[in-house]
Design a protein that fits this description.
two-stranded antiparallel ribbon; hydrolase; 8-stranded mixed sheet; hydrolase activity; alpha/beta; binds beta-D-ribofuranose; Nucleoside hydrolase; binds calcium ion; Inosine/uridine_hydrolase_dom; 12 helices
Length: 312
């Protein structure tokens, strides 16, 4: 099995992606490195530990950076709840976070699994950016790199042009995309706009979550508030951003259409800070550094989600 490091800010959709990863037939999750993002680091760490307990997996959890590199940014507690897991007041997990810092764990694991390590970024890119500053050779040891983030034609979900994970820490995203471009390792991108094209009817999701299994019950509870919020805001469809990135990672054969293009992160624009600027017409002369998911097999995506939830 390929070693998989997941950097995440759980987060309701992160939780679904993690459940999918724990099931992956060809990958073994070797670490969860935890970012601040959807909510503060204390909560995202506690949520990761709790999810491992619910899923009965023994994966080490490493706490990372507690804020973006340069500028503070609003969190997404209005989506995920004040604690990031729907404010259900779950009893805390009995397992504990590792002593090693997430950025150090990233570097160590990149050496231990040189050339094979698969990296999946489901939150702001702060931890990886810091790891890259500590060890710029890191991308050379990464076998595959998947990011949930960006809005590839400028239709953001937090500002008009920025998607949350990039917009929360644009400098970190810039560092990551440039470092992997320099190393010639393409970044596989599942962006917000792809997520919007791969929604599920709320009525269907509600039905899946009636399954009588601890995973489905826990997920039903933590996602209830955000599903209600999303139904009010976005209508009939529910969107699981991080789960789409994880589907691309664990079952890449489900990707029906992908496009390779140059991608850079906008840092300065008054309206466009945090945008992912894709050179669709290839006018910049830059090398293609992003492998952008356009279409994923929706039936296969549904099957992965339902299996992760044990929702037959
Ligand atoms: C991303 O932002 C977060 O709120 C989600 O967990 C996901 O990673 C979607 O834009
Ligand atoms: Ca996330």
């Amino acid at each position: 099995k390929l070693p998989l490091l997941i950097d995440t800010d759980p987060g309701v959709d992160d939780a679904l992606a993690l459940l999918m990863a724990f099931d992956a037939p060809h990958h073994e999750v070797v670490a969860l490195t935890i970012a601040a993002g959807n909510v503060g680091l204390t909560h995202t760490v506690a949520n990761a530990l709790k999810l491992c307990e619910v899923a009965e997996v023994d994966v080490p959890v490493f706490a990372g950076c507690d804020a973006p590199l340069l500028h503070s940014a609003p969190d997404a507690s209005y989506v995920h709840g004040r604690d990031g897991f729907g404010d259900i007041c779950y009893p805390p997990a009995t397992r504990e976070v590792e002593a090693e810092h997430a950025t150090q764990a990233m570097i160590r694991l990149s050496h231990e699994h040189a050339g094979r390590l698969v990296v999946c970024m489901l939150g702001p890119l702060t931890n990886l950016a810091v790891a890259l500053k500590l060890d710029p050779t890191l991308p050379q040891r990464v076998g595959r790199m998947v990011v949930m983030g960006g809005a590839v034609t400028g239709q953001g979900n937090t500002t008009p042009m920025a998607e949350f994970n990039i917009g929360f820490d644009p400098e970190a995203a810039h560092i990551v995309f440039e470092a992997f471009a320099a190393a010639g390792v393409p970044v596989e991108v599942a962006d917000w706009e792809a997520v919007v094209r791969h929604g599920f009817l709320h009525t269907e999701v509600d039905r899946w979550l009636q399954a009588d299994h601890p995973r489905a019950r826990f997920y039903d509870a933590i996602s209830r508030k955000t599903r209600e919020w999303s139904a009010g805001l976005r209508g009939a469809h529910w969107h699981a951003a991080d789960a789409l990135a994880m589907a691309l990672l664990v079952a890449p054969e489900g990707a029906v259409l992908r496009e390779r293009r140059p991608l850079r992160v906008e840092l300065i624009g008054t309206e466009s800070r945090g945008a992912t600027v894709v050179d669709w017409g290839r006018r910049s002369g830059r090398a293609d550094n992003a492998d952008i998911l356009m279409t994923y097999d929706q039936t296969a995506f549904e099957a992965l989600i339902r299996k992760a939830l044990r929702a037959g």
